[in-house]
Design brief:
CATH superfamily of the largest domain: NAD(P)-binding Rossmann-like Domain
Shape: globular
CATH architecture of the largest domain: 3-Layer(aba) Sandwich
Oligomer: single chain
Radius of gyration: 18 Å
Helix content: 25-40%
Number of strands: 15
CATH topology of the largest domain: Rossmann fold
């Protein structure tokens, strides 16, 4: 038996964002088709320690991820992703921080490609932390951008992110801001990647037509979006059971009777039965599920295990 260990540099060099988006899209289609065994993740110390697993029945392959989350340190996410196949002795161990950022970006790419109008080209990103770069890369992959506005309470952090992304975004207008409310007014797409515990902007600040991705809040105590936005939008979620247990936005909106569970569509269902009638406002809410990590781990196993 041998273990192949891959760190962030190897992961970044081996996997393109387009490959990650395609792999994650297929994983959600397979999830909707009943091809995965995926327990709800274990969260300890209010989400500071997470354990996730997924088994893909057709390939007899499984992914196990353990990580810790601490927003006071850099990197905020550390841990391991382990890939195994029933018929093989070797397995792959990958850096969980890199896999998590890449797969979280990829699922936003999948949702944006499905829900944002084809002409969308102006992105406002709220939050310049560890998940931010891949949010931009994913959206830019499926909706080439003409303008990017990065919002963060720490303007220097927003400017640093824009500076690091600039070589990848030729001919894109790059802006920074500290006020989320004014920054979302002219956006076609909004990505929220923060650890906020209350909504980042009022529903009234958004344009009449906009697509919003919210990936930062992953515990019931966290919220990025207001009830009114969920009530007035087509809402797609990554996986219903996980959302009902962990999404502060959805839990709050349900308790306030702003929405019902029937208003929530799982991403896999939306991909397999797409609708042209999504409405002028769409929301994708994700808390992150294990099939995303499985999809990235499979890509890495295909490239590194021979």
């Amino acid at each position: 038996m041998k273990a192949m260990t891959v760190g962030e540099p190897e992961i970044r060099e081996a996997v393109t964002m387009k490959e990650a988006i395609d792999a994650v899209r297929q994983a959600f289609v397979d999830l909707a088709g009943g091809e995965f065994e995926m327990p709800t993740r274990t969260a300890l110390r209010d989400g500071q320690f997470l354990v996730m697993s997924a088994h893909h029945r057709p390939t007899a392959s499984a992914m196990f991820k353990t990580l810790s989350v601490n927003f006071e340190r850099k990197p905020a996410i550390t841990g391991t992703v382990v890939w195994s196949e029933a018929g093989r002795l070797d397995h792959l161990v990958a850096d969980a921080g890199a896999v998590t950022a890449l797969r979280t970006g990829a699922v936003v790419g999948v949702a944006t490609d499905l829900l944002a109008p084809p002409e969308s080209e102006r992105l406002t990103l709220i939050g310049a932390g560890g998940q931010a770069s891949d949010q931009v890369r994913a959206v830019h992959t499926v909706r080439p951008l003409s303008r990017l506005t990065v919002v963060d309470a720490d303007l220097g952090r927003a400017q640093d992110l824009v500076g690091r992304l600039a070589p990848e975004l030729a001919e894109v207008e790059l802006l920074t801001a500290t006020d989320a409310v004014s920054a979302v007014r002219g956006a076609d797409i909004v990505c929220c990647a923060t650890n906020a515990t209350s909504p980042l902007f009022p529903e009234s600040a958004l344009p009449a037509q906009v697509h919003v991705n919210a990936i930062g809040a992953y515990r019931p105590t966290m919220r990025e979006l207001p009830d009114e936005l969920l009530a007035g939008s087509t809402v797609v979620v990554d996986e219903l059971d996980a959302i009902l247990e962990e999404s502060g936005e959805v839990i709050h909106a349900l308790e306030a009777r702003a929405i019902t569970k029937d208003a929530l569509t799982e991403l896999g269902t939306a991909l397999t039965a797409p609708s042209a009638e999504y409405g002028r406002r769409t929301v994708f809410k994700s808390v992150g599920v294990a099939v995303q990590d499985w999809a990235l781990a499979r890509l890495l196993a295909d490239k590194f295990l021979v």
